């Protein structure tokens, strides 16, 4: 039997969580916030049922046949996403958002950073956050160059 070359695959898993937030920047006046964020700047906030899909990428292990064990990925997602975010007021219950506007873009970055601390290095490929059926953010860990 000839040796087989390594095969790469992507593995994705999704979770859904509910949370509320208010889009509001401390750097802007109340009038500027209302103009920028509209009804999403409601002082009492508003809620979403977020759907998050996490994709990991790696070689298919020749023994297990897996990129990673789905049970492990499920546990990492529970710790990185569900525990800190589900049924929370993002702005009041999650310290990260006390200084960062709780946009879906920043929710995706928060999730990415949390998962990076838990997953094997280099395996995280993509975090996809559906705020609604129409509004989706995809984050792959990219950063801009500081000028």
From TrEMBL:
<keyword id="KW-0456">Lyase</keyword>
<feature type="active site" description="Charge relay system">
    <location>
        <position position="131"/>
    </location>
</feature>
<feature type="binding site">
    <location>
        <position position="48"/>
    </location>
    <ligand>
        <name>Zn(2+)</name>
    </ligand>
</feature>
<keyword id="KW-0862">Zinc</keyword>
<feature type="active site" description="Proton acceptor">
    <location>
        <position position="40"/>
    </location>
</feature>
<comment type="function">
    <text>Involved in the biosynthesis of tetrahydrobiopterin, an essential cofactor of aromatic amino acid hydroxylases. Catalyzes the transformation of 7,8-dihydroneopterin triphosphate into 6-pyruvoyl tetrahydropterin.</text>
</comment>
<dbReference type="InterPro" id="IPR022470">
    <property type="entry name" value="PTPS_Cys_AS"/>
</dbReference>
<dbReference type="GO" id="GO:0003874">
    <property type="term" value="F:6-pyruvoyltetrahydropterin synthase activity"/>
</dbReference>
<dbReference type="GO" id="GO:0006729">
    <property type="term" value="P:tetrahydrobiopterin biosynthetic process"/>
</dbReference>
<protein>
    <recommendedName>
        <fullName>6-pyruvoyl tetrahydrobiopterin synthase</fullName>
        <ecNumber>4.2.3.12</ecNumber>
    </recommendedName>
</protein>
<comment type="similarity">
    <text>Belongs to the PTPS family.</text>
</comment>
<dbReference type="InterPro" id="IPR022469">
    <property type="entry name" value="PTPS_His_AS"/>
</dbReference>
<feature type="active site" description="Charge relay system">
    <location>
        <position position="87"/>
    </location>
</feature>
<comment type="pathway">
    <text>Cofactor biosynthesis; tetrahydrobiopterin biosynthesis; tetrahydrobiopterin from 7,8-dihydroneopterin triphosphate: step 1/3.</text>
</comment>
<keyword id="KW-0783">Tetrahydrobiopterin biosynthesis</keyword>
<dbReference type="GO" id="GO:0005739">
    <property type="term" value="C:mitochondrion"/>
</dbReference>
<dbReference type="Pfam" id="PF01242">
    <property type="entry name" value="PTPS"/>
</dbReference>
<keyword id="KW-0479">Metal-binding</keyword>
<feature type="binding site">
    <location>
        <position position="46"/>
    </location>
    <ligand>
        <name>Zn(2+)</name>
    </ligand>
</feature>
<feature type="binding site">
    <location>
        <position position="21"/>
    </location>
    <ligand>
        <name>Zn(2+)</name>
    </ligand>
</feature>
<dbReference type="InterPro" id="IPR007115">
    <property type="entry name" value="6-PTP_synth/QueD"/>
</dbReference>
<dbReference type="GO" id="GO:0046872">
    <property type="term" value="F:metal ion binding"/>
</dbReference>
<dbReference type="InterPro" id="IPR038418">
    <property type="entry name" value="6-PTP_synth/QueD_sf"/>
</dbReference>
